[in-house]
Specification:
The chain is of the alpha+beta class and 307 residues long. Helix 5 crosses helix 10. The longest helix has 25 residues. The protein starts with a helix and ends in a 12-residue tail after the last helix. The model has no long low-confidence stretch (mean pLDDT 90).
């Protein structure tokens, strides 16, 4: 158990008055800490290996964006030594200013397109090296976890329940994975694309209110990529494209890059959910996480984008 108050005091020089549990996000435990001066902070504890490896390279880009777009990007908090994370036992701890605004599920997509366009346009001003995202990064781990899930390996009580619920979707999953591999193999034959700063899961990490507009949070995988990494989920939204093009110009719709981004993100989600199920804490609500995983195969919000 990590003592958040101690971590914030020792590493961030933030004396803490109270710590409350926030809604647990995928692959991270989240908390809200209140300092003695009244300021509030969003604290994230990440243990999952696939995310821990990303944080050291993502957080500096997040910090640079926050300086360039202070009203539209959440603000990470640096440690006493100027780092953007703290290693504690098997976890990485990151801290951001807490923003008093609701998570948006419905918003003006033209405004959101303009926001994403502004993020992409900051690329030349980012003064630091950022990782590049082209392909899905965890093929070996995905195959291992999918085999475990579909074959029901192990003696834990919930394993066969998960396997039984997943069984109808085994062929679909295999077909989607073949499609991902085919898209990756075709990459070398495609025209060159621009490399821009991307969020990677922007559509699901929007907060805002009427007086402050939209803000992007949860920059755990800030990286350079083709713009489609942030565009694929809005590919059928004319208002989004109108707003995006108002900022970046007449950017073309590229079916190949949209599909590559879609399948890469799809299997990122599948991997994250499987890693939570098999590697997550014992107290995890596994029936709820299983439902989330099943939504990736039937009636999920990603389904319309898989062709």
């Amino acid at each position: 158990m990590i003592d958040i108050a101690t971590v914030l005091h020792q590493h961030y020089a933030i004396p803490v008055m109270a710590v409350t549990v926030a809604s647990r996000g995928l692959v991270a435990e989240t908390f809200i800490a209140t300092g003695v001066a009244g300021a509030r902070y969003f604290v994230k504890i990440t243990r999952t290996p696939f995310f821990k490896c990303r944080i050291p390279t993502s957080m500096p880009g997040h910090a640079a964006l926050a300086q360039l777009m202070p009203a539209a990007v959440s603000h990470p908090v640096a440690t006493r030594s100027g780092q953007w994370h703290v290693a504690v036992a098997d976890a990485l701890v990151t801290v951001c200013d807490f923003v008093e605004a609701p998570l948006y599920e419905t918003y003006d997509t033209a405004d959101f397109g303009r926001l994403i366009g502004r993020v992409h346009n900051t690329t030349p001003a980012i003064p630091i090296h950022l990782p590049r995202v082209q392909f899905f990064s965890h093929h070996a781990q995905l195959k291992q976890l999918l085999k475990q899930a579909f074959d029901g390996e192990g003696t834990t009580a919930w394993y066969p329940i998960l396997t039984a619920r997943l069984a109808p979707y085994r062929a679909d999953c295999a077909r989607y994975y073949r499609r991902l591999c085919d898209l990756e193999q075709a990459y070398a034959q495609q025209p060159a694309h621009p490399w821009v700063v991307t969020h990677g899961d922007a559509g699901g990490n929007v907060i805002g209110s009427a007086h402050q507009g939209l803000m992007l949070v949860d920059w755990d995988y800030c990286a350079l990529a083709a713009p489609e990494r942030d565009l694929w989920v809005f590919q059928y939204d004319a208002d989004f494209w109108r707003g995006y093009r108002e900022v970046v110009g007449d950017y073309p719709i590229d079916p190949y890059r949209l599909q590559l981004a879609t399948y890469r993100q799809y299997f990122d989600y599948v991997l994250f959910m499987l890693s939570e199920l098999y590697l997550g804490p014992q107290a995890l609500d596994r029936p709820a996480m299983t439902d989330n995983l099943l939504s990736m195969f039937v009636d999920g919000w990603v389904q319309p984008h898989l062709v």
